Amino acid sequence: xxxxxxxxxxxxxxxxxxxxxxxxxxxxxxxxxxxxxxxxxxxxxxxxxxxxxxxxxxxxxxxxxxxxxxxxxxxxxxxxxxxxxxxxxxxxxxxxxxxxxxxxxxxxxxxxxxxxxxxxxxxxxxxxxxxxxxxxxxxxxxxxxxxxxxxxxxxxxxxxxxxxxxxxxxxxxx
Length: 174
Prior knowledge:
Shape: elongated
Helix content: 25-40%
Radius of gyration: 18 Å
Low-confidence stretches: 164-174
Number of strands: 10
Mean pLDDT: 84
Distance between the termini: 12 Å
CATH architecture: 3-Layer(aba) Sandwich
CATH topology: Rossmann fold
Number of domains: 1
CATH superfamily: P-loop containing nucleotide triphosphate hydrolases
């Protein structure tokens, strides 16, 4: 699968940018990472009882799916790489500490983010990382221009993620 990964602080414009990008690219899936938990289940609930006995459970509802217990970051990417077509475009929002190339959107340069494929913001990064100068948070006009730029140039800023068997490690190519 092809991954276009966008990370940065809250209220920088990531969600609006991704929403605009979805209108321009054939996006198969958006993965939104959050540090918020879904909350604990009561021990008497069915799914909690299954988990207590060691069985992972998918809770399917009319408005979505929840997998318990939670999956580690590598496991999520492994499952997605196995389930989606090789040419699927997946947009990832958040997960700034993932060791994959990503687009950074923020007023300040990241201090602990690995593998940047593009920096969007007022400060030019050191080295050879591409830079898209913009005020943050992004204005709607900038969102539209930037979304078009990313749609036109997405292979430049994305990476291929391939997952073999679930026991194998993931491989990504930029």
